[in-house]
User: Which sequence fits this backbone?
């Protein structure tokens, strides 16, 4: 039993490593198989008209004159030591650039995840409550929340709470008040998705025989929701946390741009605009790493919380 | 007493069954939300096919004298910085905005069908391989894959479409694989095998027809999200570029005047939200109808 | 007030003006077990729920008298009911896997009542639960208390479910189908625990569709049909001399003692248990135990592998099906019965061993080579609805089956098939969704026989059907077998059903056939300890001696 569980965890970690390797490889070859001269990009794009010897010097400096396989091996070797290469546009180590931005984005994403959970649990409990009206209203709120694009929600929130009412700053200021609008922007659509998922499972749990058993013991209606049904509803949502973090980080691209907040998303967007291949690759790899870690973590949590998951995986 | 008891307290076998054995109320009137959603989709289709029918002014007619007018009887959604009628521009923007969403969904769905279909029906080795590929693609969450595509091929509406399509494909592949596997393992496919039907007959008579409705529902649900992602890219300046009357691009351009002319951002955004809502409601209605028969 | 734990007079329950229960009287006394039996839809479960105030918000519950432990509970509100549930009346549902929250440790589930009614703190509640688990003889209570239901064996989790209902020693215990869908060994445990509860002075109401379960344990039986009690009395009297058709139909559904070849519905119509049984129909000509087998399996083995763990579903199984004869296959859930059926149908490939059809290769052929011979084999399953394409109506389902057999597939042929399974021809125009469970299974049988097969594989064909329909479907299968000389494999977890249907019997456990031989002989003198236990635990009608005389098989 124990050996099997260790084996299952080892398999899961091995799978995670495979995904990271594949992400690195895929990005590497995609970039090198596409027409375009990296040396030109380093020197400021195709319009730079750099002389041939400058190009050659840059190629040698970045190892671009080596065969593709050698470059690939070198990249893998560097990755193992945590070296993500040098940014074309900022001429600084990618790892350092990302390291400086990671915390801000993770703070944003995790705060949004926490808020989304709070809203989602509230909405799910409300929309599974008795009464057609409550169900209809809460259901409509969930549906609308999930349909809100980040960029529009952010714009409207700024118009109302910053420009209009003046309660909160329209751009990030490094303090807690500057964090409110970006976090709300990211959290609301995610909460809509989570609430829909949770409500479905909540209603499903309320129809299962164990709720009758609990009622027959004298349990109250709210006790059944909180002590029984909510667990069953939360579990599938927990298992989506990997996806949710990915969704939040990609939402951060928009949100950080709108709120002029430094972070991974904004760095990624700038790098995309400048076609800074090492920086984009680096960000993508780091996000993939966060995603993979989160999935492994949630799988383990789910297996602990639900013996059925464990037997299914074994 | 809460209605919890009503849901849980009576076993289905003993509860009075309204119209026992009938096809779960299939001939009932559709719900108002579905009617509303269908009506809005009708409006969108009209805006795509004959925008002139709905426009109240030429969408690109510049009239500096009428710049920044608030919504009124003559300009329902107000006017922009060049005095163009926002309502007419929103109508004119329906085609490009929806086109990106629909094409992206088509690309994602086609790839998803291919991958999911091969994984489900092509044997264990292919299933394993595609499963791993999918796992890798899932590690590029949201628009990350799209940004990667854009960095490789440069920004623009075509890249944005392909990018959104690509990033939705693994999700479709996973769901379609699951659906095909469920159908392939179903009692009726088993029964057809026992009767002596061949693979081709089972595929064409049972598996594909039964997968069709769920996949159509999936596509309907997906269009809304694709429109959101595609307009996000346009908003970031990586998709359609202003002065194109695309909703995301319009919103991006209007953001400069947020303090003075809120209608420049609110109305294009509302269109996106309404489109997503309508497709979600319709997609779910389709799923529910299909589910009632199983 | 007498010592009655529960007194109900004229209980009526309706939903939106439709009466579901119409005037039920019920008396439960301490130490006695009263059984409420009836087929599904008879109103027995609604009655049970109403006794806990759980009939549902839309329910209109009325009674002339409704006294629980001496307290008039007519018109009690939700708050008052909450105080009574668990303390004065406990409920045991079927299958603990579904009836205990799979995400909570059983200790918390059992301790809930202590927390809710006595306000005990977790530590104190835990102590009480431990004591209870010890009293109910759960092994290793200190470990078990922190397990969730899915981590326990079937018998242990069923004990936990009962523990959760009796932790406060309520004077009334209601058990709603407590043994349905359980393996016989676990069934026996549950019945014993209910008996013990009664012996401690609890008044037990046992609700079941299965008279065999009831007959061994209940002191009194009430038969419910269409919301009214149609027959009541001491168990031996009601089962020994059934007066109402509903009772007889329930008896017919327990075929253990009815010899092979005797139609169940006719056997149950006997008013006098001592009257002679109707004659058993003659077996089809030329079907003997040593005629040449049409389908023969030897050394079959099937292993499922997933992520490094192995499950041997079928292990070294050999058997033979002969024309006109039925091989019964019995075993508990997970014993490999269904996998074996799939191997015989060549839906799966065996890892070792082979199946031969009429002496020629079957499992070893390619699917293309097998296809022409597929029409010689038909199959029916537990869930007929799932075996129909949801987009197809009855006529299309049958035409499809007729066409693969190379038969005419016109309207007349479809009607002939429906005639064969005693269904009105008008059903051809319906969708299976509009049919009852019994009708669906008849359509499935019609489809299986459309291509005029020589072999029929029946995998739990009646387990999902209402009890009263079961007997009719079994009779139909028996009759069709005789008409067509079918070689049949009849799979069931229900020993009684298998015994009635089979000439030969095979007992399966953990993928292996433990015992295999003539059905009568195997029943009379089981060689294997497991078979003996299966026969012993298998509930059978008992009302003072073997009413039908010594069970004779041909």
Assistant:
């Amino acid at each position: 039993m124990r050996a099997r569980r260790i084996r299952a965890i080892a398999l899961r970690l091995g799978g995670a490593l495979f995904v990271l390797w594949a992400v690195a490889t895929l990005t590497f070859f995609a970039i090198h198989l596409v027409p375009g001269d990296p040396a030109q990009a380093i020197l400021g794009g195709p319009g730079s008209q750099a002389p041939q010897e400058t190009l050659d010097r840059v190629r040698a400096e970045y190892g671009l004159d080596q065969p593709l396989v050698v470059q690939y091996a070198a990249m893998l070797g560097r990755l193992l030591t945590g070296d993500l290469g040098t940014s074309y546009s900022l001429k600084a180590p990618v790892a350092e650039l990302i390291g400086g931005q990671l915390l801000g984005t993770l703070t944003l994403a995790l705060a949004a995840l926490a808020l989304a959970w709070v809203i989602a649990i509230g909405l799910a409990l409300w929309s599974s409550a008795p009464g057609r009206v409550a169900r209809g209203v809460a259901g409509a709120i969930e549906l609308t929340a999930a349909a809100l694009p980040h960029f529009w929600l952010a714009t409207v929130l700024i118009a109302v709470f910053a420009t209009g009412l003046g309660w909160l700053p329209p751009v990030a200021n490094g303090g807690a008040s500057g964090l409110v609008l970006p976090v709300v922007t990211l959290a609301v659509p995610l909460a809509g998705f989570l609430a829909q998922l949770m409500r479905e499972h909540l209603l499903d749990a309320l129809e299962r025989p164990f709720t009758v058993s609990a009622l027959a013991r004298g349990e109250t209606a709210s006790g059944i929701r909180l002590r029984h049904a909510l667990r069953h509803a939360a579990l599938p949502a927990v298992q989506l946390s990997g996806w949710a973090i990915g969704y939040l980080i990609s939402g951060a691209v928009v949100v950080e741009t709108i709120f002029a907040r430094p972070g991974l998303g904004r760095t990624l967007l700038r790098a995309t605009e400048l076609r800074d291949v090492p920086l984009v690759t680096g960000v993508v790899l780091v996000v993939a790493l966060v995603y993979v870690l989160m999935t492994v973590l949630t799988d383990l949590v789910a297996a602990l919380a639900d013996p059925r998951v464990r037997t299914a995986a074994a | 007493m809460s209605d919890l008891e009503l849901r849980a307290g009576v076993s289905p076998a003993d509860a009075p069954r309204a119209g026992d054995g009938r096809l779960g109320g299939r001939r009932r009137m559709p719900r108002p939300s579905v009617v509303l959603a269908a009506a809005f989709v009708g409006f969108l289709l009209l805006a795509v096919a004959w925008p002139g029918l709905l426009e109240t002014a030429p969408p690109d007619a510049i009239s500096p004298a009428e710049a920044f007018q608030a919504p009124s009887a003559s300009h329902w959604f107000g006017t922009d910085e060049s005095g163009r009628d926002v309502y007419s521009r929103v109508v004119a923007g329906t085609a490009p905005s929806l086109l990106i969403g629909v094409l992206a969904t088509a690309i994602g769905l086609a790839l998803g069908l291919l991958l999911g279909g091969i994984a489900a029906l092509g044997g264990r080795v292919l299933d394993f391989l595609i499963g791993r590929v999918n796992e890798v693609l899932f590690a590029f969450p949201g628009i990350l894959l799209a940004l990667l595509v854009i960095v490789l091929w440069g920004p623009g509406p075509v890249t944005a479409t392909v990018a959104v399509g690509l990033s939705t494909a693994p999700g479709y592949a996973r769901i379609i694989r699951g659906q095909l596997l469920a159908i392939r393992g179903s009692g009726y496919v088993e029964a057809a095998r026992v009767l002596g039907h061949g693979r081709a007959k089972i595929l064409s008579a049972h598996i594909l027809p039964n997968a069709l409705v769920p996949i159509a529902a999936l596509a309907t649900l997906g269009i809304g999200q694709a429109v959101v992602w595609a307009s996000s890219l346009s908003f970031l300046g990586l998709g359609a570029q202003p002065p194109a009357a695309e909703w995301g691009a319009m919103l991006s351009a209007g953001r400069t005047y947020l303090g003075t002319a809120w209608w420049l951002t609110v109305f294009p955004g509302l269109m996106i939200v309404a489109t997503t809502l309508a497709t979600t409601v319709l997609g779910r209605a389709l799923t529910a109808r299909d589910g009632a028969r199983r | 007030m007498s010592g009655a734990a529960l007194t109900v007079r004229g209980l009526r329950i309706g939903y939106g003006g439709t009466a579901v229960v119409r005037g039920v009287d019920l008396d439960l006394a301490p130490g006695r077990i009263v059984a409420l039996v009836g087929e599904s839809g008879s109103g027995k479960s609604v009655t049970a729920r109403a006794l806990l105030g759980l009939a549902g918000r839309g329910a209109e519950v009325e009674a002339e008298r409704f006294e629980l432990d001496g307290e008039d509970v007519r018109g009690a509100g939700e708050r008052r009911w909450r105080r009574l549930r668990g303390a004065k009346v406990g409920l045991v549902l079927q299958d603990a896997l579904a009836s205990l929250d799979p995400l909570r440790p059983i200790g918390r589930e059992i301790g809930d009542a202590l927390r809710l009614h006595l306000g005990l703190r977790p530590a104190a509640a835990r102590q009480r639960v431990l004591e209870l688990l010890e009293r109910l003889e759960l092994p290793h209570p200190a470990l078990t208390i922190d397990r969730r239901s899915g981590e326990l064996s079937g018998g242990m989790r069923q004990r936990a479910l009962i523990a959760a209902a009796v932790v406060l020693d309520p004077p009334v215990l209601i058990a709603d189908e407590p043994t349905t869908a359980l393996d016989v060994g676990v069934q026996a445990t549950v019945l014993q625990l209910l008996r013990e509860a009664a012996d401690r002075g609890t008044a037990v109401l046992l609700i079941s569709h299965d008279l065999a379960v009831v007959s061994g344990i209940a002191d009194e039986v009430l038969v419910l049909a269409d919301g009214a009690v149609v027959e009541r009395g001491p168990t031996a009297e009601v089962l020994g001399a059934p007066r109402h058709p509903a009772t007889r139909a329930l008896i017919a559904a327990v075929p253990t003692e009815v010899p092979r070849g005797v139609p169940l519905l006719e056997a149950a119509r006997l008013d006098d248990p001592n009257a002679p049984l109707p004659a058993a129909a003659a077996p089809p000509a030329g079907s003997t135990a040593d005629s040449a087998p049409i389908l023969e399996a030897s050394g079959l083995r099937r292993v499922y592998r997933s992520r490094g763990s192995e499950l041997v579903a079928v292990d070294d199984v050999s058997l033979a099906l002969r024309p006109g004869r039925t091989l019964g296959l019995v075993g508990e859930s997970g014993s490999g019965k269904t996998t074996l059926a799939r191997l015989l149908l060549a839906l799966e490939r065996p890892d070792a061993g082979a199946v031969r059809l009429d002496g020629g290769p079957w499992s070893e052929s390619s699917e293309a080579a097998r296809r022409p011979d597929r029409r010689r084999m038909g199959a029916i399953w537990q869930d007929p609805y799932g075996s129909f394409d949801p987009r197809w109506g009855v006529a299309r389902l049958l035409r499809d089956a007729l066409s693969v057999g190379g038969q005419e597939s016109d309207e007349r042929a479809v009607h002939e098939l429906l005639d064969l399974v005693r269904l009105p021809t008008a059903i051809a125009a319906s969708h299976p969704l509009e049919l009852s469970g019994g009708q669906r299974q008849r359509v499935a049988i019609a489809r299986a026989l459309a291509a005029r097969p020589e072999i029929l594989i029946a995998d739990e064909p009646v387990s999902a059907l209402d009890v009263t329909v079961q007997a009719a479907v079994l009779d139909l299968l028996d009759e069709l077998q005789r008409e067509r000389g079918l070689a049949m494999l009849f799979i069931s977890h229900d020993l009684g059903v298998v015994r009635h249907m089979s000439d030969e019997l095979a007992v399966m456990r953990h993928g292996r056939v433990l015992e295999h031989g003539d059905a009568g002989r195997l029943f009379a003198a089981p060689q294997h300890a497991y078979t003996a236990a299966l026969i012993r635990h298998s509930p059978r009608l008992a009302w003072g001696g073997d009413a039908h005389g010594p069970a004779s098989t041909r």
Observations:
- Chain B touches chain A through 50 residues (CB under 8 Å).
- Chain B has a mean pLDDT of 80.
- Chain B is about 70% helix and 0% strand.
